[in-house]
Amino acid sequence: MFQNQTFTSRYFNGVSAVPEEGTVLVHGQTVQFTSFDTNHKLNISQFTEFTRTHNGCKLILLPDETKESPILEIFCSKEETKLLEKIWIQNKKSQSHTSALFYSIREMNPIVLGILSLLVVSIVGFFYFKGLELVTNFIPLSMDKSLGDSVQVKMEAQFEKCDSKATDLFFAEALKKIVPKDSKHQFEVSVIGSAIPNAFALSNGKIYFFSGLLNEAESQEEVIGVLAHEIAHVEKRHHMRNLVKAGGTSLAISLVVGPGLGNMEFLETFTEIGSTILVLKFSRDFETEADKTSIEYLKAQNMSTDGLLSFFKRMEELESGDSDSNDQETTTSAKEESSASNKITDFLSTHPATKERMETLKVLIQKGKKGKIKKVVSNSTWKEVQTVCSDLRNSDSK
Question: What is the pTM for the complete model shown?
C-alpha cells in the first residue's frame, strides 16, 4: 500500500489536447493530482480502466456525458505500476460479484489465462458445431434437391455424357438392390467421358461416374461398392450438412472479427458458399460414415462388400506410382485430362485411399455376414459397360 508517495504525472482533462503537467500523491486508495493551477483529489474507484505503459500507467476516469473521459498518466517503475494496478483491481473486485469474477480473471497469469481461454473456446466450439448438426434436421429435403438441380444444370451444360444401354441397365439394376427401401431420394446415374477414375454425387440424387473408373474396374463389385458409397453421401445429407457447417463457421468468424469476411457481408458470403456447395470436400468423418453406411447397404442385400476396399487399394497404387505399366498409362492419360477437368474436380466428393480408411473398411467388412452377390448384370453387358466412352476417347486422341 502506498503511503504519501509522489509521482510525476500529467492530466488530460478531456477538453484540451494539451495535458496539465504536475504530480500525483498516492495515499491508500486516494490519488491527488496537483499542478500549477489545478488540484484534483480522486478515489481510485472513480477510474474505469487501468492501462500499463512503457514508463508507467494510465488511469481513465468514468466517462462524462458531455466530453471525453479524462485521463491521468502516472510515471513510475514497473514494480510501482504493478502495485498500483493491484490496488485498483482490489477496489474493483469489492464493487460486486460480477466485478469480483471479472477482475479475478484479469489477475491471472497470462499463460494460465490463455490456456483457460483456449479450453473454453474449444468447449464452446465443440457444442456449437455439434449443434449445427441438428440444424440440418429442420431443413426440408426439397432444399437438397434444389441445390443439386442447380449444380446439375451447370455440369451437363459443360461436360459430355456418354451413357449407353449397357450402363443404363447396369446402374438401374444396381440402384434397385442398393438404395434403401425407405429412401426419400430419386437416384439416377450418368457417365462422363474422362480417364480420371472417380465418381461423385449431387445432393439431388444425381450420381456421375467417370468412364475411367468403369474402364479400369476389375469387377462389377468395385463399381457397386463405389455406387453404394455415393448413395450413402446423399442419404446421410452430407452436402447439406457441409453447407450448414460452412455457413455456421462463416457466421462464427463474422461474430468474432466483425460483420462480413473481408469486404463481404455475411449473407453474401453464405450465398457464395451455397452456390458452390460441392466445392467443399467431405470431411474424414463424413467419408467414414459413407463407408460404414455403404457396407450396411450391401450386406442388407447379400451383396459383396469387397469391391469398395479393392477400389481403394488400386487408387492407392495409382497415387503412389506402384501400379503396373497399364495402370501407369492410365495415370498419364488422367493427368493429361486433369487440366481440362478442373471444373469437374471442383465438384468431387473425393475418395482418398488412405491406409487408415482401408483398415476401417476391413474391420467393417469382417463384422457380420459377408455378401455373396458380386454381379447385377451378365458378363456380356458388363464388358459393354467397361468399354463405355471408348469411342469418345479414341476421337479425342486423334
Answer: 0.62
- For CA atoms 286, 288, 289, 293, the dihedral sign is positive
DSSP bridge pairs for 188:
206
Rg (CA), the chain: 34
Phi then psi dihedrals of residue 120, to 5 deg: -65, -45
Q: Positive or negative, the Cα torsion across 92, 97, 100, 101?
A: negative
Tens of pLDDT, residues 27-52: 888 899 999 888 888 888 888 889 99
Q: Which amino acid is at 25?
A: L
Length of the chain, please? Answer: 398
Domain formed by 5-107, architecture: Roll (2.30)
Nearest to 345 by CA among 149, 242, 199: 199
The enclosing H or E element of 207 equals strand 206-210
Please list the residue range(s) of the chain that carry CATH number 2.30.29.30. 5-107
CA distance 22 to 73: 10
What span, in angstroms and rounded, lies between the C-alpha atoms of 210 and 167?
12
Q: List pLDDT tens digits, range 143-178.
A: 999 989 988 988 888 888 999 999 999 999 999 999
What distances in angstroms separate CA 187 from CA 54, 206, 234, one per listed residue?
Answer: 68, 6, 9
DSSP of 173-189? HHHHHHS-TT-----EE
